[in-house]
Amino acid sequence: MSGRQQEIVVWGVGTSRTFRVHWLLAELGVAYTTQAIGPRTGETKTTAFTALNPKQKIPVLVHDDLILSESFAIMKHLRRTFQGLDYDEYQQTETGLCQYDEIATFCLMELDATSLYVIRRHEGLAEIYGASNTVVEAARAYFTRMINTIPIPSSTEQFIWGSTFSELDILLTINLDWARAVGIDLPDHLAQYRHWIHQRPGYKDGTSRNAA
Fold first, then answer.
1. What single string gives the DSSP state of each residue in 171-205?
2. What pLDDT does residue 125 have?
3. What torsion do the CA atoms of 30, 35, 38, 42 make, to the nearest 10 degrees?
4. pLDDT attached to residue 89
C-alpha cells in the first residue's frame, strides 16, 4: 500500500452509496473535501458534474487525476492506497480473495440491487417507477431468505471477512440499516452484529459526514 495522499474530493452526500465512501474514509483517517450535492436535485446534471461523471450519479471520487464513479470501486481503491486497515493472513490467500468476491457480489446484487433497491423503486420512488405492493412484498421475502444465509456465527463480535474490519462490513451493515429502515426484521445474530458495528467511531463519523 502507498502512503501517498494528494488532493481527494468526494462528490455526494445523503445516500447509502455515498455513505459507503464517507464511512471508509473515516475509518482510514484520510483528509478530504466534500462537495455536498444530492441525488435527484438537478446538481448531478450540471455541465461541470457531467464532465466528471457522464452517468450523472453520485458518489464520485476525484483523487488527483483519477476519477471513479462506482462506490465499491472507490472503496477498493482507497483501501489499497492508504494505510489504516491492514489485511490479515487469510484475507491475502486465494481462498480468502475468492470469499471476498463472493460476499461482495452477494451484498451488492442479492441484498441491494435485487431486494432493497427494488423496494425503494416501487415504494419510496413510486412516482417514478410505479407502485406495486406485489413487487415490494416479493422483494422483502427474497431479502429475508437471503439474509439468513449470511455466514456470521453466533459470536457476533466478528467481522464478515477474516479477522479485521473491511469494506465488506460496510456493505453488509448499510444493507442491514436499509432493511430496518423499510421495516424488515433481522435475525438476532445479525441485529447484534449491526449494533456492534454501529459502535465504531468510523460509523458515527461517516454518518455525520454523509448527512445531506
1. HHHHHHHHHHHTT----HHHHHHHHHHHTSHHHHH
2. 82
3. -150
4. 96
pLDDT of residue 195: 95
* Model pLDDT, residue 12: 98
Q: What is the mean pLDDT of the chain?
A: 93
Which class does domain 8-85 fall in? alpha beta
Report, in this order, helix, strand and coil percent for the chain, each rounded to 5.
55, 5, 35
Report how far residue 196's alpha carbon sits from residue 76's, in angstroms, rounded to the nearest whole number: 23
**Cell numbers representing residue 58 in the block:** 453520485
What secondary structure letter does DSSP report for 66?
E
C-alpha cell at 45: 446534471
Report the alpha-carbon angle 105-109-110, nearest 5. Answer: 105
pLDDT at 3 over 50: no
What value does the mean pLDDT take over residues 130-145? 95
Instruction: Tell me what pLDDT residue 155 has.
Output: 63
CATH code of the domain made up of 90-200: 1.20.1050.10
With beta carbons less than 8 A apart as the criterion, state whether 90 and 163 touch. Answer: yes
Q: List CB contacts of 153: < 8 A, sequence separation 6 or more.
A: 189
Average pLDDT of the residues in 30-58: 95
For residue 173, what pLDDT is reported? 97
Name the nearest CA neighbour of 206 among 4, 34, 6, 49.
34
Domain with CATH 3.40.30.10 in the chain: 8-85
Per the CB < 8 A criterion, the answer to whether 129 and 71 are in contact is no
Residue 11 sits at φ, ψ, to 5 deg, of -95, 125
